[in-house]
Amino acid sequence: MIGGMSFRIFKTSAAVFLESSDAPGLFRHVESGFSFNELFTSSDPAAYVAVVYDDAGNEVSFNPDIPFAAPLGDQEVWAAGVTYFRSRTARMEEAETAGGDIFYDKVYEAPRPELFFKATAARTRGHLDHVGIRRDSTWDVPEPEFTLAINSEGKIFGHTIGNDMSSRSIEGENPLYLPQAKNYTGACALGPCLVVADAPAPETGIAIAITRRGEEVFSGETSLAQMKRSFEELAAYLFRSNHFRHGVYLMTGTGIVPDPDFTLEEKDEIAITIEGIGTLTNTVEKV
Ligand code: DO4
Ligand code: MG
């Protein structure tokens, strides 16, 4: 990072705002000279954003709890799976009847991680937007995931919060249905901002709260320290034989899975908080 400084980048439908760790709570409105595609293709994204910040207009203060677009340009979103023991165990339980449980145990132990395509930029929702549950699914959960920003050279330069919405009934029926359980309208949300900074400390917490008609119906928390694999390992596997012209986001897997009796309902509000990034909030819609 430039002199220990880090940045949060917020995108609205009309503008981009930058906040520096040197002046928290003050946002510089970026009028020109910034694009997410340039950031993700820069060899030194931290230096790129520092220059944009210096050239940006006056500081404005605003309530950051407004809708934000997902912080991306043309980046795809990919995801890693079964990187936490909790995810391995919950998935083994849900796939047991179909005989699919063994695959989750194997991939948890194997050198090669599970990696899958999650969403194009156009399919990715932002903060205070809706996320989807499928009409043909009976068991649905959000997956709160620390998400890496990786430039086109494979260098991790930042992070955000991701929600890897998932149908447990469809995935549990047959692991080969994974793309239908994971890739559908409203299945992916990122935000509320992109943090350009070094990776946070392992004890950094990830928390989720789900509210239904004003009452909390689920909450959970974990920390990055519970992850079995390193960020570098996941990024290196993603870039094996795979070129990302515009860079890429990589969700790093969930460590929080509600008990089997929980399923999301339409209009539930999902709030995912990661220290140093903020809170990504979405409301559930049926798609
Ligand atoms: O194996 C299926 C997906 C796993 C996943 O999305 C996760 O562990 O977060
Ligand atoms: Mg996941």
Please give the CATH class of the largest domain: Alpha Beta
Radius of gyration: 18 Å
Query: Strands across the major sheet, in which order?
Result: 4-3-2-1-12-10-9-15-5-6
Low-confidence stretches: none
Can you give a write-up of this model?
The chain is an alpha+beta fold and about 290 residues long. The protein folds into two domains: about 5-60, no CATH class; about 75-285, Fumarylacetoacetate hydrolase, domain 2 (Alpha-Beta Complex). Helix content is about 20%, strand content about 35%. It has a ten-stranded mixed β-sheet with strand order 4-3-2-1-12-10-9-15-5-6, with helices on both faces. α3 runs antiparallel to α4 (about 100-110). The longest helix has 11 residues, at about 45-55. It is globular. The mean pLDDT is about 95. The site of magnesium ion has 7 residues, from β5. Magnesium ion (MG) binds near residues 79, 143 and 254.
Keywords:
single chain; 287 residues; alpha+beta; Fumarylacetoacetate hydrolase, domain 2; 7 helices; globular; binds 2,5-dioxopentanoic acid; binds magnesium ion
Question: How would you briefly describe this protein structure?
Answer:
The chain is an alpha+beta fold and 287 residues long. The chain has 7 helices and 17 strands.
Secondary-structure blueprint:
Elements: E1 7-11, E2 16-20, E3 27-30, H1 36-41, H2 45-55, E4 59-60, E5 76-81, H3 85-95, H4 101-109, E6 114-119, E7 130-133, E8 140-141, E9 144-150, E10 156-164, E11 166-167, H5 168-173, H6 178-182, E12 188-196, E13 205-212, E14 215-223, H7 231-238, E15 248-251, E16 269-274, E17 278-286
Parallel strand pairs: 5-15, 7-17
Antiparallel strand pairs: 1-2, 1-12, 2-3, 3-4, 5-6, 8-11, 9-10, 9-15, 10-12, 13-14, 13-16, 16-17
Helix pairs in contact: 3-4
Bound molecules: 2,5-dioxopentanoic acid and magnesium ion.
Magnesium ion binds at residues 79, 81, 143, 145, 164, 253-254.
